[in-house]
Design goal:
By secondary structure, this protein is α/β, with parallel strands linked by helices. The protein has a domain at 208-299 and 402-460. It has helices at 12-16, 20-40, 167-178, 184-194, 201-227, 267-274, 302-314, 320-341, 347-368, 376-384, 386-389, 391-394, 403-419, 425-443, 448-460; strands spanning 142-144, 151-153, 231-238, 247-252, 257-262, 281-284, 298-300. The strands form 2 sheets. The chain has a 5-stranded mixed beta sheet with strand order 5-4-3-6-7, with helices on both faces. Helix 3 (167-178) crosses helix 15 (448-460). The longest helix has 27 residues, at 201-227. The protein is extended.
Length: 474
């Protein structure tokens, strides 16, 4: 075992007078105490904690360095005026012609038969209609067959909903709860107040399950596409389902985003998310579950790494200088990457500029991993994942951070905070399918509400579900 290092609080004479076994024990206590203090001092700048969890004692977040021209509030000087385009007069609900009745200069009455001297100035006012809900009554008659006297009742047509509510209302309920995070009781109040439709909380929950079933093919379509993707960003966050505590997983590809709620955050759940046939690359944090993927097929998130190094710098101990040096090298990596992303350098120059930084980090970590202090385990882990740190340097389209997955999780986190999770397995399936369809529609700028209507209509008519993805991959 390496020689224990003397704590700064003890003099050299006191340290030499301490038995070797006690030195080892003191070194162990100092390391554990530093780790405990670092955990207590965690905030959004040195860990994966969100900014909303920062205590009042946390340091203020650094101001972002402005780039480009200085901006002012509102439209920028020289910006062209933006006006809403007028729709054709033939498409408006009503046209109200307005004519002046008298001349303001001489007070002369203007006759009605005067011809306008120029086309009228047009103002179009958009308003939501105040109309009672559309209620259609289907009357199913029963007849007696004159041949065999059998009673014959009319069957429900395929395009008629099986219950009291139509596909547009089902889609609206799914949209308001699954995309805009209204609670079920708020949703009932809104539907009754605005659309004058009597509905109960129980009916709202049942209709959400109808929408969930209608979106199941879209969920499967996205999962199959992601299994064939070349690269995905993956992350996970805690969830709540009744008394259980599952995890919400997300995989973000180029054209699709998949959410799954699973009981666990290990290798099995990762394989379920990506499918056993997945052979692409994965950008993620350093959760142990991702170690099942070879380092050459991974990109480790540098944003997480910088937060971890910052926490080591802020913790008191003899590792602070090494942590500060590694943090400075990581900042240099981002500075070079920023120049590449802005187009100031090409990939060959990127690789050349990063090569000495890589060498310096490797040499420093090789030394630190044997010191047996708070930074050593992190360096040992990074050396094991060394290839996964630098995939972005060689492979086009891969970035050094996992921002895509973290951004995708934000709406889900807001939903979890507002609703405290779900209460059943059916509720969790609705959540993951709505999140999947909503995020994927947003990726290729497809309106969500019409898709929900089409999916519910096809489900009730026993027709194939509408395709969610364009031809191509994820």
């Amino acid at each position: 075992m390496d020689e224990p290092q003397r704590p700064a609080e003890l003099s050299e004479d006191a340290w030499q007078a301490t038995p070797p076994e006690v030195r080892q024990f003191i070194t162990l206590l100092v390391t554990k105490l530093a780790a405990l203090e670092a955990r207590l001092n965690q905030n959004s700048q040195n860990s994966s904690k969100p900014p909303s969890s920062d205590p009042p004692s946390a340091p203020p977040r650094p101001a972002k360095t402005p780039r480009g021209k200085p901006k002012t509030k509102g439209a920028q000087p020289g910006h062209p005026d933006q006006q809403r385009d007028l729709i054709p007069t033939s498409e408006v609900s009503a046209v109200v012609p307005l004519r002046p009745t008298s001349c303001p200069a001489c007070q002369h009455t203007l006759p009605d038969d005067l011809d306008p001297v120029e086309p009228p100035r047009r103002q179009q006012v958009w308003e939501i209609p105040l109309a009672p809900p559309e209620v259609t009554e289907y009357q199913y008659h029963t007849l007696v067959c004159p041949c065999c006297q059998v009673w014959v009742s009319a069957e429900r047509p395929d395009d008629v909903p099986p219950g009291a509510f139509g596909p547009r209302l089902v889609a609206l309920i799914a949209l308001l709860h699954g995309r805009y995070r209204l609670s079920n009781r708020e949703l009932v109040d809104l539907v009754q107040l605005v659309w004058q439709i009597p509905i109960s909380v129980g009916s709202v929950c049942q209709l959400q399950q109808v929408a969930s079933a209608a979106l199941a093919p879209a969920q499967a379509e996205v999962q199959a596409a992601l299994a064939a993707a070349d690269h995905v960003h993956v992350d996970e966050t805690s969830w709540r389902e009744g008394s259980r505590k599952p995890w919400l997983w997300v995989a973000v590809g180029t054209l699709a985003t998949l959410f799954l709620i699973q009981l666990g955050r290990g290798k099995t759940q990762l394989q379920t998310l990506l499918d056993a046939t997945f052979t692409g690359r994965v950008t993620s944090d350093r959760l142990a579950a991702y170690n099942s993927i070879p380092p050459e097929r991974r990109q480790v998130c540098w944003a997480h790494l910088i937060r971890n190094l910052r926490s080591r710098v802020e913790a008191k101990g003899r590792w602070q200088a090494d942590a500060a040096d590694l943090l400075a090298l990581a900042d240099l990596v981002f500075a070079v990457w920023e120049r590449f992303r802005e187009g100031a350098i090409d990939r060959t120059t990127l690789q050349a500029m990063l090569q000495p930084i890589q060498q310096a980090m490797w040499e420093r970590m090789q030394v630190v991993q044997h010191d047996g202090h708070y930074l050593s385990s992190l360096c040992s882990e990074l050396l094991r994942l060394w290839d996964a740190l630098w995939t972005f340097v060689e492979v086009e389209g891969i970035e050094p951070t996992n921002n895509a997955a973290e951004r995708a999780l934000r709406p889900a986190v807001l939903w979890r905070k507002g609703s405290y999770g779900t209460q059943s397995d059916g509720g969790s399936r609705f959540v993951e399918r709505m999140l999947t369809v909503s995020a994927t529609c947003q990726q290729h700028e497809r309106p969500l509400f019409p898709y929900l209507i089409a999916a519910v209509t096809a489900y009730w008519a026993n027709q194939p579900a509408p395709k969610l993805l364009p031809s191509g991959g994820a």
